[in-house]
Amino acid sequence: MNRVRERHRMRRAAPPPLSPATHAAAWARRVHLVRTALGAAPATPTLIDRPAALGAVLGDVVDHCDRAHVWLTLAALTGRLPDRHAVVEVARASEFDAGASLWAAVAEHTTDESAGWDVRLASGEVLVDVAHTASTDLTTGIQRVARETTRRWLGSRTCTPVSWSEGFDAMRELTPTELRRVLRGAVERRRADRGPITPRPPGEADPVVIVPWRATYVVPELAAEPPRSARLLAMAELSTNRTGVIGFDCVPITSAETTQLGFAGVFAGNLAAVRHFDRVAAISGAAATEYSGWRAMLSATGLSGPAVTSVPLPVEGALPTDDDTASARQRFVIGGLPLVLAIGSHEPRKNHLAVLHAAELLWREGQRFSLSFIGGNSWGSADFTRLLSELQRSGRPVDTASKLSDGQLWAAYRLARFTVFPSLNEGFGLPVAESLAAGTPAVTSDFGSMRELAAGGGALTVDPHDDHGLADGMRRLLVDDELHAELSRAARSRPVRGWDTYADELWDHLVAW
């Protein structure tokens, strides 16, 4: 605290510097945003040529000791959302210098780039943050949820999709290209391994920067970037905005050994922000259990954490075309062998090494079937690739594929005898749900979200840590036609829960409360 006081004492002792003309002009343009947000009348026109001049036009409405006011002032005048450290430091110092530290901080945090931005106040709006989803053609499960949900909200609700500046220091409107990526939805190829697209084509205008105030801010994706998390932490804790997020899972914490090195720390940064959010809509009962357990831990820090509710993801099956079926049959079916499918990337958590081992146990006892994996390589997939190659060299009917269209994927589901998904931890278990929606039985794990899905009928559960138990489950569905028929009927009889229903329920929980 002494260092903070000394730094700001020295600022007061020095002559107040003139600010770059572009910076001062930006402040003059944005002063009305702060006054409007705080319910004040427009200020008398005043020359703003240095930070101290801001006090003359805002000192009557801004409480420089109120951290929400400090957050708003820094965000609106600089165009950049502040982090928690900046807000708290300025508010504390301002108690001893009548707000001079706030005006000095505005000058310190304004950059040549941010001074050129068009900034608007989003008051009373619903903002939907789709920054990562809008920046790429990659369609993981998370991106699909964000696209399907946001598309429906944009079609039936009043909301504004938003992204972030390149350094994640400013919230902004989407570019036309980004909006098209969000709206593409189901027609876009799924599980593609393509990388990100250039965020903004040459010639596309700079989007308008948004400062939320008394708005509702919702994140339907995972906001894991550290600078984004830092800005969201301050906004959720210190501003007047309502906040909500989809809770996909806490796998990086509960099963850290199965995630990429370093990601647990990144995810912890996300949770540091989410602990100040108002609501979490978990994608399954299992995910809600994880978030509720984490929320209970927060009581030790004096925080109550967000309200956690389960809003289960939907599953809508699709009928493939004849061409899709023919293509999938040619790609995956080997003679008269029953086809077993394993869907998902080859990261360790998906337990594909256990699937290969169980399959080899069955092949060695004389069972006849082919095994196909559909999904791309990921971190930690080297052992899977090595073992797969060894089995292929020994003549086993096993392969892997990626970059399938939606139609080809649904055709593969329907051609399969059954699917196998013995994951070690899942927020939802989409491949299980999709398999059952296609009327194809599944062998899956006997806990968490996978057991939730199996409870609706059509699946056989096993201990994913027991290779022989997994092999037993696969054997039963290979040789027991009566059991297979029973599970197939149960799968086809499951109630349908669509994306429209999910989007409505999610809106009710995260927005309309």
Description:
The protein is of the alpha/beta class. It has three domains: 116 residues, no CATH class; 203 residues, Rossmann fold, CATH 3.40.50.2000; 171 residues, Rossmann fold (3-Layer(aba) Sandwich). The protein is built from 23 helices and 15 strands. A nine-stranded mixed sheet has the order 1-5-4-3-2-6-7-8-9. It is elongated. The two termini are 40 Å apart. The relative contact order is 0.09. About 3% of the residues have low confidence.
The CATH C-level class name of the largest domain? Alpha Beta
Distance between the termini: 40 Å
Q: How helical, in percent, are the residues?
A: 40-55%
User: Which ranges are low-confidence, i.e. pLDDT below 50, for 5 or more consecutive residues?
Assistant: 185-199
Write a concise synopsis of the structure shown:
By secondary structure, the chain is α/β, with parallel strands linked by helices. It has 23 helices and 15 strands. The protein has three domains: 2-117, no CATH class; 121-314 and 502-510, Rossmann fold, CATH 3.40.50.2000; 322-492, 3-Layer(aba) Sandwich (Rossmann fold), CATH 3.40.50.2000.
Key structural traits:
single chain; 513 residues; alpha/beta; Rossmann fold; nine-stranded mixed β-sheet; six-stranded parallel β-sheet; 13% strand; elongated
Blueprint of the fold:
Layout: H1 2-13, H2 21-37, H3 54-58, H4 67-78, H5 84-97, H6 100-109, H7 112-115, E1 119-123, E2 126-129, H8 131-134, H9 141-156, E3 160-164, E4 171-173, H10 176-184, E5 209-213, E6 216-219, H11 226-238, E7 242-247, H12 251-254, H13 263-274, E8 279-282, H14 285-298, E9 307-310, H15 322-332, E10 339-343, H16 352-364, E11 370-374, H17 382-393, E12 398-401, H18 406-415, E13 418-421, H19 430-437, E14 442-445, H20 448-454, E15 459-462, H21 467-479, H22 481-492, H23 499-510
Parallel strand pairs: 1-5, 2-3, 2-6, 6-7, 7-8, 8-9, 10-11, 10-13, 11-12, 13-14, 14-15
Antiparallel strand pairs: 3-4, 4-5
Helix pairs in contact: 1-5, 2-4, 4-5, 4-6, 5-6, 9-10, 9-23, 11-13, 15-18, 16-17, 16-21
